[in-house]
Every structure is written in C-alpha cells, then in structure tokens.
Amino acid sequence: MKKFYGTDTYVQSAGIKNDLEIDGFAISVCQEIGVELSRHRSRSFEEMEKWGDPISSFDLVVALTPASRREVKDLTRYSHCELEYWPIMDPCGMGETRDARLEAYRQARDEIIARLTERWGDPIA
C-alpha cells in the first residue's frame, strides 16, 4: 500500500498472531517489486491496541484470511470501521520446488496488487 500510494494515508499491517517470522519467500517476491520486508515484524491486533492503535480507530480494515475476518468483526462490532475481505490464495506449503514455491508467492503478491488497484486505482508512486 505504501509503495503504491505513498504515506499520506496511515497504514498498518497486523494479524491474529505476532509470533511468526516473515516468510523468506514473501521477502523474496516483495523485494522483486521494491518492497522491503526483511526488517518487518508481524504484529497482532492485541499488540496494536497496546501501542495505541486499536483496530477500531481505523477507517478500513482489509482481512486476507477467514480467521482474521472473524477477529476483526469481533473487535470492531461497536465501531464504524469498514471491513473488506479479500480472499487471497495462501501460498504457504504450495509447490514442490523452490521455483514452484516462489511462483505461488508471486501469484499471491499479484492478487494483492490487483485488489489494491481495483480498490484505489493506479499506483501514484
């Protein structure tokens, strides 16, 4: 989001768990398009709350998994936060070879890019 539309809009990445390392395949395919994930750390919705960014304070949350959609619905049931669900293919464990796995991650990355441009138009950056 930040790469394509700049930093004028406040954007955070979060999920249900925070104990996961960023997947090396995700780092590789994002690096191909100039997005640096190697220093990124996963955050949970609970952590965001502790850091002063309650999920209910956002205007829009985009959930990429059914589990995160359920969690966000629960966390925002009394707020005016809009929720969109983008059922993106989960590339984890797909493909038998390194090249096949990278291709699955590229497909997921490209699905996200397609959803971004469908929602917000052509990138400005």
Total domain modules: 1
In CATH, the topology is named: Rossmann fold
Distance between the termini: 10 Å
Major sheet description? 2 strands, parallel
In round numbers, the mean pLDDT is 88
What is the β-strand count?
Answer: 2
For the record, the CATH architecture stands as 3-Layer(aba) Sandwich
Primary descriptors:
125 residues; mainly alpha; globular
Describe this structure in words.
This protein has five helices and two strands, in the order H-H-H-E-H-E-H. The termini are close together. It has 125 residues and is mainly alpha-helical. The protein has helices at residues 2-5, 24-31, 45-50, 66-75, 98-120; strands spanning 60-63, 82-85. The model has no long low-confidence stretch (mean pLDDT 88). Helix content is 41%, strand content 6%. Helix 2 (24-31) crosses helix 5 (98-120). It has a single domain (2-120), classed as 3-Layer(aba) Sandwich (Rossmann fold), CATH 3.40.50. It is globular and about 45 Å long. A two-stranded parallel sheet has the order 1-2.
Brief account:
This protein is mainly alpha-helical and 125 residues long.
Show the helix and strand layout.
Layout: H1 2-5, H2 24-31, H3 45-50, E1 60-63, H4 66-75, E2 82-85, H5 98-120
Parallel strand pairs: 1-2
Helix pairs in contact: 2-5
